[in-house]
Amino acid sequence: MSPISFIVGIFATLAAAIAPPAAQPGEIRTFRDWTVGCDNGGNCQAVSLVPANGAAGFDGWDGPVSIVRTAGKDDIFKIRVLFHAREMDRYRMKIDGQLVDTGPIVQGDYPIEIVGTDAEKVAKAIINGRHLVIQGPNGENITQVSLAGSSAALRYIDDKQQRAGTGTALVAIGSRAYQPANSEIPTIMVDRWEESELAPETGDIVALAEDSRCKNERYGLVEDQVFPLGRRGNRFRALVLISCGSGAYNFSSAPYVGEYVENPRATSGWTFTPARFDRQPSWGGEGADPLLVNAGWDEQDQKLSSFGKGRGLGDCGSAESYIWDGDMFRMTEASAMPECRGAYEWIAIWRANYRNLEQTAVSGK
Known about the structure:
The chain is α+β, with helices and mostly antiparallel strands.
């Protein structure tokens, strides 16, 4: 066996031995007009929704309130309000008619962000309140939020972060000392192949599409995509995204991995198999070949993304990102918003780190 083959074999064996378990994204729960969820590291987020009774509809609604709390000892606590920026420089926050906070409105993703002890003070007012209003400096209405279910949502965070019964809890306050749970974020080892530009040609892709689950979904404008995944010895791989139907705002793709073996003694073309994922993309459903929505590909990091909107407003749906580990796609991020009720802030439910296996072997870490 050549030295190169021996080293490659070691890397492949090491990757298999230390591969993390399949991704298990967290659950999202809804309590009346609030929804809440946590990721696998214990970081949690509660987001307000348009009232379920429909009494107010979208009248006076210009974005949700989001409460974010980390699970570690650093205990990062933030309250954010999302809305379309206006020509205003300050806000006033009232709960049931009482002023609970005021501060500057800034340009950026979060025009209002309250942190630390100020955020805790506002959160406690939210728990005991019924209705929250954000106003401009002269009493102009910016947005209003129902607080029904906020107490249950924040109690859920207390429970998931094991704060219930401790002095750090927001709702289930007690006297015990808080001990953060040991929730280690997994690290995915990536076996990166050599760079290569070899990819299937048009005839290969047409034949694959005709033999795919998407054959009868290819109408209107179709755009298949091909991306090289690299070379190892005489083997070449490529990612193929077969167009698989579209709607007004969602474009579906079926992912395949093609392999070509270079052999001077025989002619062999590309072979294709459905791409493997450690966690099935949410849009395709369990028990079927994977399906991506509004797929994106990061060529430099070899990351694949899927972003499916539940409706055109973009206030519900799911999103996932995956890293190619040299053999399959492993989930690095996931977020979702199951309720189509005005919440443009989707909740993070999974995260993982990744590291190139070759770098790890060299560094000895």
